[in-house]
Amino acid sequence: MKLAFGTGTASGASWVTDLSRSLGFTFQEVDTESIESLIAGTEGCDAIIVALHKLTAEKIAALPSSVRCIGRLGVGLDNIDLAAAEARHTPVIFQPTYAFNEVANHALAMIMALHRGLFQANKGIQSGEWIPAPKIARITSLQDTTLGVVGCGRIGQSLIEKAKPLFKEIIGFDPAIKSLPGVELVSSLDELLKRSEIVSLHAPYMKSTHHMIGAKELATLRQGAILVNVSRGGLIDEVALVESLKSGHLDGAGLDVFEKEPLEADSPLRSAPNLIMSPHIAWYSQSAGPRLMEWGVKDVLGYLSGNATLNGKFAVGPF
Question: Which of 33, 84, 91, 302 has the lowest tally of Cβ within 10 angstroms?
Answer without folding.
Answer: 33
